[in-house]
Amino acid sequence: MATPPSGLVTFLFSDIEGSTRLLRERGDGYAALLRSHRATVREEIAANDGTEIDTQGDAFFVVFPDADSAVAAAEAIQEHHAEGPVRVRIGLHTTIVEPTEEGSYVGLGVHEGARVCAAAHGGQVLVSEATRQHVTRTLRELGEFNLKDFPDPVRLFQLGDEDFGPPRTQRLIRVPTPPTPLIGREQDVKETVDLVQAEQHRIVTLTGPGGSGKTRLAIEAASRLSAPFPDGVFFADLSSVTTPEAAWALVGRALGAAASLEARIGNGQVLLVLDNLEQIADFGASVGALLAACPNCRILGTSRTPLRLVGEHARAVEPLERSEAIALFTVRAQAVFADFRPDASVTEICRQLDDLPLAIELAAARTALLSTDEILARLDRRLRLLTRGPSDVVERQRTLESTIAWSYNLLRPDEKQLFRRLAVFVGGWTMDAAEAICDGTVDQLAALQEGSLTRRVGDRFGMLETIREFARDRLDGTDELGTMRDRHARYFHDWALTKREQRTKRDAPFDFLGDDAPNAEQAMGYLVEQPSTDAALELACEMWRSWAAQGRLAEGDDWMTQSLARADQGNLALWEDGLSVAGEFARFRGDHERGLRLKGEAVAIARQLGMLGEVAANLKDMGEIETGRGNLVEARRLIEEALALRRRLGWPHGIAHALVGLSEVELSEARLDSAITVLDEALAIGRAEGLIRSPDTDLGALVLIRLGEAQRRIGNLDLATDLITEGVEVALDLQIVDAVRIGLEEMAAIHAARGDAERATRLLGAATRSLRETGYVDETSTERSLTESALASAMGHDRYQVSFEAGSQMTLAEAVNLALG
């Protein structure tokens, strides 16, 4: 064998595609095919100054002194086999190398040449980038691909124009490798992968506010999409460009396109991952043009606004699930404080940060300096706290404020103004409210929503709290703040009174404020700051039922006190309403003397005005106060007077409520049969009038639980269970916390009577915690004490205390599940 060349040489590797299959098909005839193939290859090797280095079976390893000779030999070999059954794969690679003493070659160049051959199809000649630089022939560029065991992608070319499909090698995925694993989001990743692969979606755009994790989700999804895109998956961060021309130039560099992007992609099955599209003006049209020119190309984009293209599927990236947010906080905190363990404050931090990934990561970084309690205490000014992100990310992602500012600065001036003004809302808004208070237009609101600065849930709109703080900071710096607060307060005051006009006073929906309760409370805060106004009292008289139901007694009492102090006592009807409601809070909190005084004044005004319904309502309430004081004779007199008046007025709802009040007297006197008779009538009225499960009243919860108590006390445990179960379910649906608490105490007594001391004790713990937190007067202590004594005796003091404490850690919903399960 002649001495192999040294220096710059070109290797040719070849083998027969499907040789095993061909052997099975030809049998003894395969040997003749193989001899002919070998003869042809050796003939062309000799004709083009090549040197055969090695032959194994149907494979050849040949070296040529120049690239053009290798190309000529490869082309001739393929021409010889063009019409026959043998399909030859050939790969060419040029490198600098020296032969060994044995006349062979070693080194990465040898392995790379073999891998190029392995990527070829039968009948195809693949050429490496190194070889292309040294040939005079024009070659067809195929793009970049990964070769097995080679870390960096290589550019491959083909001799001739025949379409063989993508090379037989690992798919090229050119996306960033994140420094940390993805926490959670598995379902989001799966859905994104499915969307990109769906036939009808040429472009999928991940939308969401800054810091929601769009880029990280896109990268994770792209890393799993190599199989459907054999011609490559390519990533381009477009945050630094603002024009389509600059954007496509950057994408072209990511793909290594020597000419136009359309020519580089052609019919290739390519996925482009285009990150940060929102700031590129008029980008949609050019995206559409690219997709039209490249029919097998797909795009996965991230943007705070959709491109609004025909065929685009915009998928909103929501904040993390709470458990995922806690896991993310924990992992990031442990990176700076190895001994970190999550606690209750971490859960609350995640909640207040809207479970937004960037905000959570920035907060977790603060554990190097602050405890979770200290971080939580500082979240009222989160934008100042959540700074100092990693130095290896772009500037706009190093602080929470800068990532929101990125979106804000893309708005038009009128959109910025509306965005600032919308910060006046708490807990969201309706379209009507935004138009009336902030002078917003539909187009402006649409721009904010498309920019992921606001979000829609059902028929309402809102902001993540972190974004709202950013907007509020900008509103605070303008002379619009006072005007917006005044408009907001007047709107919700008028809105609440309009609700009143749509119903009779005592048939008010139990919590008619619904989702706008936070806005109404903010309006209250503004109105009580005014020197003299009836507006605060008017609004407070509409809101009190919510405060009472939720157990916010001290807060409601304080609102009523402030509202009465600013109201005009000459407006007798309003004044009577305010006194009556203030008396309710005094009653609920156990201030019997103040409650009787306020209710007595309200009765006097109601009689003066001829408001008989109000007379009856206040008399009934006074009777219930006397029941709580133990003055049962006076209590019965007042409630029976109220009941008679309500029967005369023919008001079923009021009659039923008065009957419940009378039953409390009967129960206090242990007249259980009488109590059951009274409550049966109240229940019959409630069912006939559709009031038992109505969201407009607490009657159903009260009558069912009280009747269940009476039945339990006479020993009818099964019937008592059914009644109390229904009553607790109603109370929980309406979020009437004290009714739930009383129901839990009753279920505890039932479970104790049935011998389930452990469950009964836990229920008492949960009920007692609720009583302590809400501040309701304890009017059930007698019956509860009997249950407590029986359980402590049955379980022993220590075991009872452990179970009681465990119950006190449960939420009301958890306790209800335990009680009714």
What does this protein structure show overall?
The structure is a single chain. This protein is α/β, with parallel strands linked by helices and 821 residues long. It is 57% helix and 10% strand. The protein contains 37 helices and 15 strands. The strands form 3 sheets. It has a 7-stranded mixed β-sheet with strand order 2-3-1-4-5-7-6, sandwiched between helices. It has a 6-stranded parallel β-sheet with strand order 8-10-11-12-9-13, sandwiched between helices. A hairpin with a 2-residue loop joins β2 (51-56) and β3 (59-64). The radius of gyration is 39 Å and the shape is elongated. The termini are far apart.
The unreliable regions are 391-396, 503-509
What would you report as the Rg, rounded to the nearest angstrom? 39 Å
Mean pLDDT: 90
Strand order of the largest sheet: 2-3-1-4-5-7-6
How many strand segments?
A: 15
- How does the major sheet shape up? 7 strands, mixed
- Cα(first) to Cα(last) distance is 89 Å
Summarize the structure.
This protein is of the alpha/beta class and 821 residues long. Helix 26 (592-609) runs antiparallel to helix 27 (612-629), helix 31 (699-713) packs antiparallel against helix 32 (717-734) and helix 34 (757-774) packs antiparallel against helix 35. 46% of the residues are buried.
